[in-house]
């Protein structure tokens, strides 16, 4: 479980966000003042997950395909050293395709299997 520092000066908002974050599975340490308001718990959850994905883990296995580097553990994709911003579906498709010998020329049945896995 990741622990986040909740920075909020309004006690009512702080309690609501703290409850929502705990329900989402985060440990919470409250403080005072910070994030641009208003913020919904699901938006905050998405931001937290994005930050956690960017944290590179020591010894994280990365695959290299030309200029493309895929770190499956951290869910980070880089091209030419720059991190790419992929949607969840794009990332899932890339992970499936890069882990498959089939690669590109998929038949109709292969496309159906790919779509089901992504």
How would you characterize this protein structure?
This protein has 118 residues and is α+β, with helices and mostly antiparallel strands. It folds into two domains: 3-54; 62-117, Winged helix-like DNA-binding domain superfamily/Winged helix DNA-binding domain (Arc Repressor Mutant, subunit A, Orthogonal Bundle). The protein has four helices and six strands, in the order βαβαββββαα. The chain has helices at 11-23, 41-54, 88-98, 108-117; strands at 3-7, 27-31, 62-65, 68-71, 76-79, 82-83. The strands form two sheets. It has a four-stranded antiparallel β-sheet, with no helix packed on it. Strands 1-2 form a two-stranded parallel sheet. Strand 3 and strand 4 form a beta hairpin. 5% of the residues are buried.
Question: How would you summarize the topology of this molecule?
Answer:
Elements: E1 3-7, H1 11-23, E2 27-31, H2 41-54, E3 62-65, E4 68-71, E5 76-79, E6 82-83, H3 88-98, H4 108-117
Parallel strand pairs: 1-2
Antiparallel strand pairs: 3-4, 4-5, 5-6
The radius of gyration is 19 Å
| Average pLDDT taken over every residue | 74
**How does CATH name the architecture of the largest domain?**
Orthogonal Bundle
The CATH topology of the largest domain is: Arc Repressor Mutant, subunit A
Instruction: Report strand %.
Output: 15-25%
Question: How many separate domains?
Answer: 2
Helix percent band: 40-55%
Total number of helices: 4
Terminus-to-terminus distance: 25 Å
| Helix-strand topology string | EHEHEEEEHH
Please identify which CATH superfamily of the largest domain we are dealing with: Winged helix-like DNA-binding domain superfamily/Winged helix DNA-binding domain
Looking across the biggest beta sheet, what order are the strands in?
A: 3-4-5-6
Low-confidence stretches: 101-106
